[in-house]
Amino acid sequence: MNADEVSLLMTAVPEPARVLIVDDDPMARETLEAVLRKEGYTLLFAASGNELFQQMAAAAPDLILLDVMMPDIHGFDICLRLKASAHYRHIPIILVTALDSTADLVRGLDSGADEFISKPFRSPELRARVRTMLRIKRQYDALQYMLQTRDLLSNMIVHDMRNPLAAVMLYIQLLRRRGNLQSEQERYLEMIFNEAQHVSAFLEDMLLLNKLDRGPLTLTRSPLELSRLFAEVHQKTNSLAVTRKVTVESTEPPVVEGLEVDLVLFQRALENMLTHAIKSAPPHTAVTVSAQVHPDSNSDAPAPRLRIEVTNAGAHLPPEDLERLFDKFAVMTLKEQGSSHVGLGLAYCRMVVEAHGGHAFATNIEPRGLRFIIELP
């Protein structure tokens, strides 16, 4: 762990809030300073829009008190520029101005201002609004800190577990190559190898889910070939199916024209869905994988709509549990096995499918069974 990571995980000592006062009138700046000085803030000053942006480049404040009628850049335009910036849009802005019409108020808020105070202002009201905006800013900063800490811890966990897992799987393969194993020993090695693969996949899913939480996923799209997809997913889940005494069957998939997906992510999504279907299926039953292609009746686009279904003979779930299946880290009981299952694979599946503009969900089927569905436009 490097020094930056250590400092991030340590509890930060709060510093005085930095308030930037922007007004071309020296008397107005002095008045605002007098009102806020006793609050313990670090006060910064700018006499123009250009000076404001110079201050922002040096060190971003926690709050901006901004006059609208500036000599170089109009206050509304300053708001628009700040809120258009990924670096500055989270900084609250209070417009302090002599403009008091409804039209000016609406225009200011539409420009991105978070609050609006008319001159002459009442000192207690100004202090209260400043405290409110700073409280919101602190909550935002705390949330960002938590997200960064979570991502850091996730990356550390994955990094620290990858090497031991790789070693376990390597030693299993070496033992198999040596031969002379009894059938029971071979079966135990297969079980250990499957579980190690499951943990490895779980870690990779966790990394991608954290990445998806931070923003839209960048997809590397290629034409989708269903027959190859089904074959690769079947091969990846075959050992699990054998261990669970479940048969995986698939119908001949149709040819899909004009549909492109991120093949790596989409294959993993379908693999996760099939894995869950196998785990929730009773022993000595079949899990079927099928696909249909038909025009999307809700769209004018000529591209076909794809529906992939994974069906098992598992016990029905209440409607609320059908939705919870796709929640991250949801703990579900697999009734057929009498064990608990921590959900992450289906959460990964849904987020990848939604990144492609599609839907992933599950339904009960009669008289018994679950159907897991992926739909792509």
Layout of helices and strands:
Blueprint: H1 3-9, E1 18-22, H2 26-36, E2 42-46, H3 49-58, E3 63-66, H4 75-83, E4 93-97, H5 102-110, E5 115-118, H6 123-178, H7 183-214, E6 221-223, H8 226-243, E7 247-250, E8 260-262, H9 263-279, E9 286-295, E10 304-312, H10 319-324, E11 331-334, E12 339-342, H11 345-355, E13 359-364, E14 370-376
Parallel strand pairs: 1-2, 1-3, 3-4, 4-5, 7-9
Antiparallel strand pairs: 6-8, 9-10, 10-14, 11-12, 13-14
Helix pairs in contact: 6-7, 7-11, 8-9, 9-11
Please summarize what this structure is.
By secondary structure, the chain is α/β, with parallel strands linked by helices. The protein is built from eleven helices and 14 strands.
What does this structure look like?
The protein has 377 residues and is α/β, with parallel strands linked by helices. The chain folds into three domains: 3-146, 3-Layer(aba) Sandwich (Rossmann fold); 149-214, Helix Hairpins (Orthogonal Bundle), CATH 1.10.287; 221-376, Heat Shock Protein 90 (2-Layer Sandwich), CATH 3.30.565.10. Helices cover 49% and strands 19% of the residues. It is built from eleven helices and 14 strands. It has a five-stranded parallel β-sheet with strand order 2-1-3-4-5, with helices on both faces. The protein has a five-stranded mixed β-sheet with strand order 7-9-10-14-13. Helix 7 (183-214) packs across helix 11 (345-355) and helix 8 (226-243) runs parallel beside helix 9 (263-279). The relative contact order is 0.07.
